[in-house]
Here is the input.
Amino acid sequence: MLEIDGLRKRYGDTTALDGVGFAVRPGEMFGFVGANGAGKTTTMRIVMGVLRADSGEVRRDGRPLTYEDRRRFGYMPEERGLYQKMKVAEQVEYFGRLHGLAPVAARKAAGGLLERLGLAGRRDDAVEALSLGNQQRVQLAVALVHGPSALVLDEPFSGLDPLAVDALAEVLKDQAASGVPVIFSSHQLDLVERLCDSVGIISAGRMVACGPVEELRDAGGRGPLTVVVRDAPPGWADGLPGRLTREGDRQVLVSEDDGDDQAVLRAAVRAGRVEHFGRRRPTLAEIFREAVA
Ligand SMILES: Nc1ncnc2c1ncn2[C@@H]1O[C@H](COP(=O)(O)OP(=O)(O)OP(=O)(O)O)[C@@H](O)[C@H]1O
Ligand SMILES: [Mg+2]
Here is the structure.
């Protein structure tokens, strides 16, 4: 269990963190989301010991993190740090060695990761010759090469094409499945919703929501009633609550009203062919907008 507890951090007059805390269990994928400047990078830097908190603590299995713990973590910093002139495979191996792998193990791990991340064909190119997204893949290989005991990744998906997003998602799922706690920040909320067991929403240095994605969505209420009717005559929804829009020969009624939804259904059935009738729970993006508003 990785616990972040009561972190506070000020930069001069700016309060970056104002009591940030959450916990990530072994094997759990935790999505860390928040607007620009909310405090995600600051939190992750403190977890990794790159920055000191003014107060608060980061614990692993109940005791404060040590240098040795952190050395076994995999970290992808916001400020990407690769040696531009070094070759791709050499670089990943080098970082594996820095984390304590023997030469053969480092070579093997680097080779496997480059293969999985679609970089096998670029192994002998200098990093500076790679596109932005491919450099990002190298950065990920560097964070993963030593078989980390926890992963802390600051916007690992930014700049990746959809295939690379899928490849990385698979790698992270495997890491989590092997018992590693994974924290990553992202602005791609659909991805976080799809991938994460739990999310934390940070706003202006405070956690405004935290928990399993499904629980947050359930707690977000039932959502509006949406009815889609085809070939309905004009005026069929007169007197019904909600807002009616047309999409070709479909009419869509969206209602926040909590009244008699069965009456709405009967009216829709009388009017035409009902293609959809139901309420949907809010998406993570909708919960996010509400939480940080
Ligand atoms: N070195 C610094 N000196 C002064 N202020 C800083 C410093 N680093 C961060 N801050 C401030 O701390 C706050 C939190 O910044 P942080 O980088 O943690 O946000 P973030 O959530 O990672 O944002 P983004 O989504 O843009 O990456 C911001 O107000 C930022 O301006
Ligand atoms: Mg950041």
About this structure: Residues 40-41, 78, 154 surround magnesium ion (ligand 2) (CB under 6 Å). The mean pLDDT is 93.
